[in-house]
Amino acid sequence: MSEPLYARPTSVAEALELRAAHPDWMLLAGGTDLLVDSNHRKVPVGMLDLWRLAALGGIRQRDAAIEIGAGTTWLEIERHPLVRVGFLPLAEAAREIGARQIQARGTIGGNIGTSSPVGDSLPVLLALDAEIEVASVRGSRRVPYRDYCVGYRKTALAADELIIAVHLPTPVASTRMVWRKVGTRKAQSISKVMGAATMVLDGGTVVSARIGMGAVADRPIRLTAVEQAVVGLSLLQAAEAARAAVPAAIAPISDIRSTSDYRRAVAANLVARFFAV
Amino acid sequence: MKIEMNVNGAARVVEASPYRRLLDVLREDLRLTGTKEGCGEGECGACTVSLDGETVNSCLVAVAQCHGRTVKTVEGLAAQQGDKEILHAVQTALVRCGGAQCGICTPGIAMCAADIVERELLHDQDLQQARVMVRELLAGNICRCTGYQLIVDAVIEAASEVGLQRRERASRRTP
Ligand SMILES: Cc1cc2nc3c(=O)[nH]c(=O)nc-3n(C[C@H](O)[C@H](O)[C@H](O)COP(=O)(O)OP(=O)(O)OC[C@H]3O[C@@H](n4cnc5c(N)ncnc54)[C@H](O)[C@@H]3O)c2cc1C
Ligand code: FES
Ligand code: FES
Q: A27: which strand partners?
């Protein structure tokens, strides 16, 4: 067995060159998805290691948005004042991703890279209307997360592209943001159902809402039918309208964790509670 | 490839395939067998070490990722005083409280507990909150023997020793 090649770029430009030259190499960040059971898996031909690449780290204010580098860990996200103050659901999701050892290594870029239907940050990215900045030697572009995940663990990322950062537009002042994960135990559990919502309120009336949910379809989804059903309603009415509209808006599966009927019922209650708590 | 890292305060050089797990290189090449394997999947925490100051699962680290970085294992927790080894406060507390039985989870628990104590993560918490926090912070460490109660006791005791108790008393005096 020959040894895999290993490269640790020190700049984004170098990383993009390597990515373009070796699209078959393992693209590695914190390894908490890729390295599970790694000693029983096929050894990759090469490894492109992005872990702690400085240019992919950090959280910054950028005009009316914050920018989170793809290499930022959950621990860094959870601790960061810009996230805690302006984007609490993301801090809350970060705190529920695995346990502390996973949060110290797992990155937001890795969660987006995998784009599993149970990726806990992904409904939050949908509810916050996040844009994913990706780049290659050909140039860079931004993709809204709602167009990024295109199927079961399938993404719009090209073979020569890297995820650079996540951009979260700052919501208007009267926006309410909520997040909830349902799992078998409080920590270190894969979600049965989880979701996030942002809603703009005028007095007690819903002006607009965005709802992202995970583990209720083959990919993280926006519940646009539910979002439309709640506009113009009081919070209490919105809760009832949401409860009624959620089951038809999702397509959950049955697996070892839950049945689809269970997921439908829990999802309906969870979204209803986003409006009336 | 040649991998240079600082392990428990000493510069170490190993020749290893970059894809090998840090866990295996520690145990097999460096003979630091304190770090255990439970699951190999990031679930159990038996393999916990500190990498650049953060507790991580060494089964989920490719050894090449440690080149030029600092690793601390359970063997590095105790302080060396001449030829005497002074156990870390969390180690003596685990022994004293009965927080270790078969011992497989213990190195990982000790690493996480030391992190909690050294960072003073329980600072300003009352006892009940502190217990809840310890359980959350140790959620990635599975123990099949103790039922956790005695482990939580040990972490609280160690944290107290390192300062919590004193602060708690002070805050009780000024209601
Ligand atoms: C025990 C355990 C518990 C877990 N619990 C949870 C949980 O509760 N919730 C949850 O959502 N997840 C959970 N996970 C999954 C995992 O921790 C997260 O998805 C994490 O965010 C992955 O980040 P990483 O940096 O470790 O990714 P890696 O494993 O390094 O990479 C994951 C994928 O993303 C790609 N990638 C990484 N960075 C980039 C980049 N910059 N550009 C392009 N592609 C990139 C990689 O190529 C790979 O395909 C858990 C994992 C374990 C082992
Ligand atoms: S062996 Fe690494 S977490 Fe279980
Ligand atoms: S003491 Fe046996 S697993 Fe914890």
A: A48
Nearest to A75 among B45, B54, B57 (CB): B54
| CATH architecture of the domain covering A175-274 | 2-Layer Sandwich (3.30)
The residues spanned by each domain of chain A are 5-50+59-169, 175-274
Say if residues A214 and A181 touch (Cβ distance below 8 Å): no
Instruction: Give Cα B104 to chain centroid, integer Å.
Output: 13
Fold for A5-50+59-169, please state it.
3.30.465
Q: What is the pLDDT of residues A28-49, one digit of tens each?
A: 999 999 999 999 999 999 999 9
Which residue(s) pair with A47 in the sheet?
A6, A26
- HSE-CB of B55 using CA atoms within 13 angstroms: 29
Q: What is the pLDDT of residues B115-151, one digit of tens each?
A: 999 998 998 899 999 999 999 999 999 999 999 999 9
- Domain B79-173 classification at class level: mainly alpha
Crossing angle between the packed helical segments B106-118 and B127-137, to the nearest 10 degrees: 130
Pocket test for ligand 1, best of A111, A118, A152, A191 (most atoms within 8 A of CB): A111
Read off the pTM: 0.95
In chain A, whose CA is at the least distance from the CA of B116?
A: A100
Domain with CATH 3.10.20.30 in chain B: 2-76
Phi, psi of A93 (to 5 degrees): -65, -45
Q: Looking at the DSSP assignment, which residues form a beta bridge with residue A139? A: A136
A187 in B contact zone (CB under 8 Å):
yes
Query: A67 C-alpha vs ligand 2 centroid, how far in Å?
Result: 32
Burial of B139 (0-12, 13-18, 19+ CB in 10 A): buried
